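ok trying again, last paste got cut off:
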Amino acid sequence: MPVGLFRVCLLVITAIVNHPLFFPKENGTVPENTEEIIQKMKEREESLRLEQLRLEREIADQEATQKALEKAAVVVEQSKEEKVRWDMWTALSMVIFLLIELWRQDFQEGNWQDIGGEEDDMAVLGKAFKGVAFPDKAVLASFYEKRILGTTGDMARMREMVEGFADDLLEALRSVCNRDADMEVEDCMGVGSMYENWRVRKPFVCDLIVPFAPPEPYCFRCQTWCSGDSFPPDEQGYGTIKVCRADEDATGCICDKTKLGEDMLCLLHSQVSSSRPSSEMEDLLCFKNTQYLDADQVMKWFQIAVTKAWNRISHKYEFDLSFSLLDSPGALKIKFKSGKSIAFNLTPVVQYENSDVYFISHFPRSSLAADVPSSTHWFLTFAVYERRFIQLVSKTLPANACHVSCLQILSFLHGKQCSLTGPSGLTNYHLKTVLLHLLQARPSQDWAPEKLEARLQDMLKFLERCLHEKKLYHFFIGNGKVPAELSFPIIFQRAEPLNLFRPFVLRRDIYRKMVDTFHEMLRNMSALINEYTVHIPLAHTNGIRKE
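nice, full thing came through this time. structure:
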């Protein structure tokens, strides 16, 4: 019992002691602590909010960076795909270009093989032939016999007379020249229509070329447009001639390309030999301050030398000699006391290496070199090889073959048309080039005399196509099928084909005149031929007919 009362009392005392009313001061601090806690909680909340905003900004920045990286990756991937597509298009374009180039080369090598076609296939003739009454074999044979053969019989005598006089004149020229300082002149050679037996129009003019070489110790070093160095398109077919000492390297000594010190000397060349005075090179007919041969100076020297030579031998002849044309420096004319005259061209040339290709200073009566880039550019002539090719092919043709007759008739018709409507860009050299291509393309039996009409049609048809395409390739340049018997230089066979109609591509007025002249010639062909033909019954003439 006492223990129980003690426990109750102890419980009451403990309750009284722990009652909050007994400690008012201590319990009064609770509100202050609560406000501080609340304030700290607010500060903590604000710091957490700021931290949250910072984290959100960092996350947004990271997301933006990620998106930018992804976008950049997409752009890079797209650029790679576009590059791959571009590379594919580039490769495809290159393949197409190579195929076109291979086709072009194959076409150029074989494009003359199918120009003849069937002899009676006149349906392929162009629009220019529609409505044209083409003379038949009987009319052409009568015209050729009456007009062509009747005027070319005295060509052989004229050639013999001119060659004999030219040899005498050149011999006198050598005697008046200084062998130690002047150019050395060689024997002349006959080229062109008079020596290929197809010239028909008077006056007959013989074309002679005269090779010359520099005096010792000098030599000519020739450079062509196809020798490896870059030449502009308008200089294709030309070359330059450098005058060098025979003991000088073609590329020149290194002492000419580098500045040696004052105490250094070249062991190969002294200072005297390494620098040539300008007057010395001008005496060698070079362009001012260069080592390149000047065509204008060469022609002036040649004219003066020919005049001196003629003064020496003029007492031996009963005629006068004079220069006939101012724009053709090598054009000479022999005037007899009876009033008759004989014209011929004597043109100096430079031999290309050891071949029969020559650099020619001027083309007489021709527009082939009408726009020479400069007087140091010389045009190349293949006239000697052209003459040899015609002679070589003629040996394989039937007797009395019609190839020369075709060229003579076409040259006559063209000359007559030009006398009516004025000259055009089309020349006899273009007509001869057409014949050379046909001679190489067609079999020998196709040039039998009875096939004159068909071959003349082939030449006109071929020329019309060339005029339409503005392409007539030089026969020798770029032609890999030149007969080996000619020993033609391989460098020109491997060169790019030279388009003889290229000058007319940009000169539309001349091209238009050339085409109009050709069409007029076709329309007037029957009238021009009938004018020089004896009467033939109409039963023999039926226009364009098949053989």
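cool. The first helix runs from residue 2 to 17. The longest strand covers residues 341-351.
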